Amino acid sequence: MPALNERIQQFYDQSTPLWLNTWGEQMHHGYYGPEGTRRTDHRRAQIDMIEALLEWGLAPATGVRRFLDAGCGVGGSSRHIAVRYPEAEGLGVTLSPVQADRGNGYSRKAGLGDRIQLTAKDVYALDPAVDGTFDLIWSMESAEHMADKQELFALFRRLLNPGGRLLMATWCHRPEPPYLSPGDQYSLHKICELYHLPPLVSIPELSAAAGRAGLKHVRTDDWSVAVEPFWGAVIRSGLDPRNWPGLVRAGMGTIRGAWAMRYMRRGFATGAIQYGVLSATK
């Protein structure tokens, strides 16, 4: 079996064109208000997710001059951050050459090609010259692909400048005890299998790993309710006959990934899965 990073790359190389055609350049969930009841267009909800995380994790007067988008997809978040902070320059890393190429094209089209660079690279392989240079590290639904969370937080701490801030949104399982039932364990196993993830951790485990890595002012929250409406929208898009040709072209890996939505919804219904957000400083 190919190594984890290779499987992740193949999955996103194959599935990205379909996602872009269906949902656009924001390759993450939407935010529907704290209670998940805000009625809004699903693409608008994806933008609201970026805004909500920035507002939750950054003080209004915080300036951003240089940021890292770790697991950037096609750089939708990077472009949004660059517009919000006009003096900021961003570096985005993704394992997928397809995503990096598409994203750089979007940035040039948006007039941001001189301020945002996306590259197909493992975040652990960044040039040591960038250590300590980032005011902000943005990790939107990518940390779940990393097996060793403490190692990941240690890397982020090294990359941040003094006082720099990490903002993360990632999938987790609920804290134990009470222990996860066999049915919950099966749902989590299928999610990880279909999305090429190592075993998930809980939000408290995520927080503890950040603290052990030397990050300060660690703060977390559970936004599961706020994002839950997006799963139904993704399932409906997969059932739309207009998207079937794209699904077929994307291949079985993408089809199986779309099928994982049913396990996400089942895990949410039983409380097994949670959508964790985290902020911390160096």
Keywords, separated by commas or semicolons:
47% helix, 12 helices, 282 residues, seven-stranded mixed beta sheet
Helix and strand topology:
Blueprint lengths: L3 H20 L18 H16 L8 E5 L5 H9 L4 E6 L2 H13 L6 E5 L13 E7 L8 H11 E14 L8 H14 L7 H10 L3 E7 L1 H4 L1 H11 L4 H7 L1 H8 L1 H10 L2 E9 L1
Parallel strand pairs: 1-2, 1-4, 2-3, 4-5
Antiparallel strand pairs: 5-7, 6-7
Helix pairs in contact: 1-10, 5-7, 6-12, 9-12
Rg calculated over all Cα atoms: 18 Å
Q: Label the overall shape.
A: globular
Uncertain segments are: none
How far the N terminus sits from the C terminus, by CA atoms, comes to: 38 Å
As for the CATH topology, it is Rossmann fold
Can you tell me about this structure?
There is one protein chain. The chain has 282 residues and is an alpha/beta fold. It has one domain: Vaccinia Virus protein VP39 (Rossmann fold, 3-Layer(aba) Sandwich), CATH 3.40.50.150. Helices cover 47% and strands 19% of the residues. It has 12 helices and 7 strands. A 7-stranded mixed beta sheet has the order 3-2-1-4-5-7-6, with helices on both faces. Helix 3 links the parallel strand 1 (66-70) and strand 2 (89-94). Helix 5 (149-159) packs across helix 7 (203-212) and helix 6 packs antiparallel against helix 12. The longest helix has 20 residues, at 4-23.
